[in-house]
Amino acid sequence: MSRRHRWDTDCVMAASTSPPLDLSAALVLAPPTAAEWLVILPVVWCLILGALLVMMRRNVSLHPVIAIVGLAGLVGIDGLLLLEVIRNGPLTMVMGRWLPPFGIAFTADLTGALFALIAALVALAAGVFSIADINDSGRRYGFYPLLMVLMAGVTGAFMTGDVFNLYVWFEVLLISSFGLLVLGSEHEQIDGTVKYGFLNLVATTLFLVATGYLYAVFGTLNMADIARKAEGLRSNAPLMTLAGLYTLAFGMKAAAFPVNFWLPASYHTPRVVVSALFAGLLTKVGIYALIRVMVMLLPVEREELSFVLAIAASLTMIVGVLGALAQSDFRRLLGFLIISGIGSILAGIAVGGPGGIGGAIFYALHSMLVMTALYFASGIAMRLGASASIVTLAGLYRRHVGFAALSLMLCFAVSGLPPFSGFWPKVMLVKAALDIGAWWLAAVLLLAGFLTTIATGRLFLLAYWREQAVAVGETPPLPAATLAPLAALTLLTLVLGLYPEPLLATIQDAAAGLDDPSAYRESVFPGGWPQ
Amino acid sequence: MEAWFALLVGVFFTVAVYLMLSKFIIRVLLGVAVLGNAVNLLIFTGGRLMRGVPPVIADDAQVLAGPAANALPQALILTAIVISFSFFAFLLVLSWRAYDDLETDNTDEMRVAEPVNEPAPPLGY
Amino acid sequence: MRSVIFRTVAPFLTGLMMLFSVFVLLRGHNEPGGGFIGGLIAVSALAIYGIAHGVQTVRRAIYFHPMTIAGAGLFAASIAGIVSLAAGVPFMTGLWIYPSLLGVEVPLSTVMLFDTGVYLVVVGAISSIALSLEERGGE
Q1: Of the candidates A166, A91, A158, A161, which has an alpha carbon nearest to the alpha carbon of residue A122?
Q2: Which of A87, A436, A530, C59 has the smallest number of CB atoms closer than 10 Å to its CB?
Q3: Residue numbers of B between 18 and 57 with CB closer than 8 Å to A
């Protein structure tokens, strides 16, 4: 009881603004710098553009232009933010001048800024791809406003420094993802959305349950404040319960085994560009939240749960890739590959340490780029071959050599073969697992990589290399809008594979920043802890 | 009083889980609605309960006279209510659409996206 | 609905409820009320009108598409936050001006703009759902 009374008094101190009191104890008095505005700008930018696009219902032909320019702007803002964070450490902007932990803080550290930048790149690629994939009725339905609001939710989730606020951003991106998923309203899509909708709602509600307990235990929702208080509460508060609940909730969002079944049930139903967007963004937001909460806020609990996490990770990897081997639908196959990738990331979180966490972050960023690109490839294959099933799809190599080459590169990249971006995180993860003596986890990682090679190899053999048995008519022309984003993302994975040093160094700093969040705390509480 | 609320939260969760285990979408939907309320009550109880002392500072004072009710959980709950309300509305429309288009509200029979007899992938070529 | 009494009363009831919703919205700054509950009252008003006179009449009466209204609300709320950029204070800081209108001081604030935005978002989003449900129910 006495603890609660103290918060209440604190609240009141913060709330009263009459002149005799010292305002600096409650309010941020210094004007925010331009760099600090960069923390909040990506979210506001997306929201304002989304709102403008919703209001422009009558001229939908302008939607793609505005959205693509807006997303390019988002990439620019996120890039500037990342540069600023690399140079000067984490940045914080508090809402409405209230000092944290009472004011909601938006804090961008290296991890958040990296995820935000890659997410913006993926969204920009999807924006370009959508020119060819979203027709007029899709535009009228509101694809582009939903896309912008989805990006606001994703970016907000990466930037926020408050657990409840994280929940709110999860819901923002969830509600816009519902809208994107049913776009078209075919039977298949409604079926997929029902499963996606209900299961994801249960996951976010679990997240909310965990957050309710967290507040009951800590009396604060600010991440920096939680990280500080966890040490003192560990002996007499049920922090393991919290960690378990968060793992379940975020594991469900990330589609980890055994709560992964919503993903292959829904990801192959919407428009290709929507699948690609979801593959790149949604599960990775769950992974980001898991890293943030388990590594930065509850590190000791992560250590204790690491065996459970490792088992879940192994099963996710194996179940995912076996599912991929059993599929004949191009997009469902990819859905299972996403799950397998999530398993690798979870393995990194289970192992921990700079190598494990760094590997997990790198793998997540790599997976965002590659899975999106692979979904683009599936869309183009469906255009060229007029079929989504690899039973009937054949001879794509003959139809478009360049496209087949790009697809082959992506197949290599997703399997973790050099010289693509998947190779380095895989090496980091295997090494980290071996370093802590978890040889079996390393073996599973390698086995999953091997099976992924078989799955993608079979895909390539059947859909691309196999001779077309029946004669086909003229190959439909490929719009540049479909090939360009595919080529750009593939090139990016190649560049990151050949020249990974800058990204690797940044990721190692990001992992170190999560392990020891003193810079993060210093950014939220510049003058030390509030008394 | 917290103990009684904890018990009530438990009852809510039981009802919600029971309903959500059903095959029929409409029951699952009702389960989701109850689940949202269960969580709201949980947050409310987690913020500690206090009756009849609003956290309002008297006109002639600078700080609160004594302990008062915690206002933050109520703000959290308000947010959660708004969110769960809009989700409920969306899922209601979706369920109706699903019932209209798929002509079933039994999730076991909703196999449009994942057909039962999918051809196995070819073993060679 | 066929009831003559209901059809006659509905427009008056709708007007009254709309007025009340704005009252609740403006009251919300210092007393119970606010954008969300005000918006819900407005949507109930529209729903009653829709039950009495059909969904098409409501769509004509509100002139804008419901989602456009929601978009305008989102825009207003975002602008309310970004005004702080010009004022040199952190995002979402409440800023007040007190213009005097016909000798009466009218306090206006970004907080109120934000709340109005919430009101419009709720009116737009929920009425679009409610109207589509009513449309399907009438089939």
Answers
A1: A158
A2: A87
A3: 20, 25, 28, 32, 35-36, 39, 42-43, 45-48, 55, 57
